[in-house]
Write a structure and sequence with these properties.
241 residues; 30% helix; single chain; 6-stranded parallel beta sheet; 3-stranded antiparallel beta sheet
Length: 241
């Protein structure tokens, strides 16, 4: 695990962009395409804007396929839909073809939505093991990541798949990659900033005795890949560095 600490979110984004570009280009050179899983929410908006405008010419985006680590169970036109956020801040700028974007279909019932997404992944990977080249993850102040929330059934999942999960405190369903599927990735990068994340970050990184049910981000441990945390000073205020 590599912990990268920056004095500002702008500096964090600048370094994370360089990291994404380097992995994308190396992967495209070696295997001809780049399978890239996006994180949702507000944290990556500026990252996506910069990557798709200022740094647009640094990657051959025609060879990039985009996926989502999780999705909120709202209709695709809803403002909270992660796919819409990515479309407005990334895909539109890159003019990404629709067949290079793997949206999660939330017009289906939750369980069917999860099954359909897993089927789409299986087809893209030709029935072979699903190993993403890079997964971006956020972390909430409750230590959830993707839609693996504390004290939910998804914390217990042992299968590398896609699942629907009921999140009681949000009174809604979410669709998410499971931790075992995430952990198959070649590279995983967390983007985490703000003092409200400090307590969770301290538990996730520093606790010797793990409590996955309470701090689900502790589940993220790549089997054969790299794990990097891109954080700001404020998020590390509880860590003993």
């Amino acid at each position: 695990m590599n912990l990268h600490i920056f004095k500002s979110v702008a500096e964090l984004n600048e370094n994370l962009i360089a990291y994404v570009i380097e992995i994308a280009n190396k992967t495209i050179t070696s295997k001809g395409r780049f399978d890239f899983v996006l994180t949702g929410g507000n944290s990556p908006k500026e990252l996506y804007k910069e990557l798709s405008t200022t740094f647009k010419d640094k990657v051959d985006w025609t060879k990039v396929y985009f996926f989502f680590g999780d999705e909120r169970y709202v209709l695709p036109e809803h403002k909270d839909y992660n796919g819409l956020m990515a479309k407005e801040n990334l895909f539109n700028n890159l003019q990404t073809p629709e067949d290079h974007i793997f949206y999660i279909d939330t017009t289906l019932p939750p369980v069917d939505s999860a099954k359909a997404y897993k089927a789409a992944l299986d087809k893209h990977f030709n029935g072979e093991e699903i190993v993403f080249d890079l997964i971006l993850l956020g972390m909430g102040d409750d230590a959830h990541t993707a839609s693996i929330f504390p004290e939910t059934e998804l914390v217990k999942s042992i299968h590398p798949t896609v699942e629907a999960v009921w999140v009681e405190k949000l009174d809604t369903f979410r669709i998410s990659l499971t931790a075992p599927l995430i952990n198959k990735a070649k590279n995983i990068a967390f983007i985490t900033f703000g003092e409200n994340k400090a307590n969770a970050l301290n538990h996730v990184i520093a606790d010797e005795q793990k409590d996955y049910f309470i701090y689900p981000a502790q589940l993220i441990k790549p089997l054969n890949g790299n794990l990097d945390w891109f954080v700001d000073d404020k998020a590390t205020s509880f860590l003993d560095l």
